[in-house]
Amino acid sequence: MTPGDDHHVEGESGLHTPVGTRRSFFSRITAGIAGLIGMGLAVPLLGYVISPALKRRERAWVDVGGVGDVPVGEPKQLDHVTTIQDGYLQTRSQKAVWAVKQQDGQVTVFAPKCTHLGCGYRWADEEKQFKCPCHGSAFGIDGQVLAGPAPRPLDRLPARIENGRLMVVFEEFKSGVANSEAL
């Protein structure tokens, strides 16, 4: 018999079975469906497990004290212990802000760090200035730079008054740059 001949060899039947069987077809279909179900369950489960690690820290409004506790035209440091949720990690941290109440009752709240290198500053009552002890920066009661190497005014925090309470969103800012950039 030469290649290409369509003659049957003696002993072979004329019927041929297709490649694979009904059993292997159903096995493949079952494995495919099980894989789809597994993927359908794995994707939400992985999202649930991984998403807290990818989520940015939530910034919530925090009650730092009564507005009546802040005298008009005189800065007051307000301290508050807050809980910070970062992914699965939960930490308690003491935060401070400087609040200045204007004549009209509005309150300006400043972040507690100098804009030069992030040192903590204080209010010098005798000089009527915020003074940074690290490198000599000085700021007016409105947060504007009066002296020193500070590249910008004090950073302001979002604040609002709710039922006589001062509510603040704590933010941290990049030090040493000319523009106020939140971290």
How are the SSEs placed, and which strands pair?
Layout: H1 22-54, E1 61-66, E2 76-86, E3 89-101, E4 107-110, E5 122-124, E6 129-131, E7 138-139, E8 145-147, E9 159-162, E10 165-169
Antiparallel strand pairs: 1-10, 2-3, 3-4, 5-6, 6-7, 7-8, 9-10
Quick overview of this protein structure:
Helices cover 18% and strands 30% of the residues. With 183 residues, it is of the alpha+beta class.
State the end-to-end CA separation: 83 Å
Within the largest sheet, what's the order of strands? 5-6-7-8
Helical segment tally? 1
State the order of secondary-structure elements, H for helix, E for strand: HEEEEEEEEEE
State the secondary-structure class.
alpha+beta
How many E-type strands? 10
Mean pLDDT across the residues is: 82
Specify Rg, calculated over alpha carbons.
35 Å
Question: How would a textbook summarize the main sheet?
Answer: 4 strands, antiparallel
Q: Estimate what percentage of residues fall within beta strands.
A: 25-35%
Which term fits the overall shape?
elongated
What do these coordinates show?
With 183 residues, this protein is of the alpha+beta class. The chain contains 1 helix and 10 strands, in the order αββββββββββ. A 4-stranded antiparallel beta sheet has the order 5-6-7-8, with no helix packed on it. A 3-stranded antiparallel beta sheet has the order 1-10-9, with no helix packed on it. It is elongated and about 100 Å long. The termini are far apart. The mean pLDDT is 82.
